[in-house]
Amino acid sequence: MIAQRDDVHVVPARPGKDHVDPHLDADRLVVAGTDADLAAVALRLLRKEKLGSVALGYVPLADSSVAALWGLSTDPARALDIALNGDVDPVPLVRDDVGGVLMGLGVLAPVRGVGYSDADNVLRGQASRIECTPDPDGGLGLQIRIVNKRLIGSKVRISRPRAFQLGCLPTTVVLDGHKHPRPVDKWTWYRHTEDLRLVRGL
């Protein structure tokens, strides 16, 4: 669902340009759905060069990494009130090298390859998984967690780059809860030059 202050539109999951673009003249849009639905709308804002003029509110209707990351309410009534009336905060918008955006959590798993956070070599060999989120702590844009599971516990290496690049044996990518359609042997996440205007509070 996409809502404006006085108008509601029911759209399919992960809506495309035909469902989103007619509403991009508003100064604020509210997405009620999943993290993947939110990412689909944010992608249209990016492609139509509307990031600087349209605020994006979010009412999560399922488990949400975006809500956890940015402290958004998961109570539908409270989330809707904030999304419609709350203040706007700029947050990093993370892109990938296949034309998508990442709103909450991206996962590559399992991984065997070489990875770089900016110019720093952070992986050479095997990892159980690599996780990427926008950086909630005001860093360069990304937060990368490289996880190696052990018999007892896990070893986690964290970096906060502007960009992360991986070359690897074919692996699976899951973006905001949605599985990428095919295995990949390389992947890049990077911070877009313009932030997303996310509605976060009253």
Spell out the key features of this protein:
4-stranded mixed β-sheet, 11-stranded antiparallel β-sheet
Topology:
Elements (H helix, E strand, L loop, with lengths): L1 E3 L2 E3 L7 H4 L7 E6 L1 H13 L7 E6 L4 H6 L5 H10 L1 E5 L2 E3 L4 E2 L3 E4 L1 E7 L2 E8 L1 E6 L7 E8 L4 E6 L3 E13 L2 E2 L4 E8 L4 E6 L1
Parallel strand pairs: 3-4
Antiparallel strand pairs: 1-2, 1-3, 5-17, 6-7, 6-16, 8-11, 8-14, 9-10, 9-14, 11-12, 12-13, 14-15, 14-16
Report on this structure.
The chain is α+β, with helices and mostly antiparallel strands and 202 residues long. The chain contains four helices and 17 strands. A hairpin with a 4-residue loop joins strand 6 and strand 7. The longest helix has 13 residues, at 35-47. The radius of gyration is 17 Å and the shape is elongated.
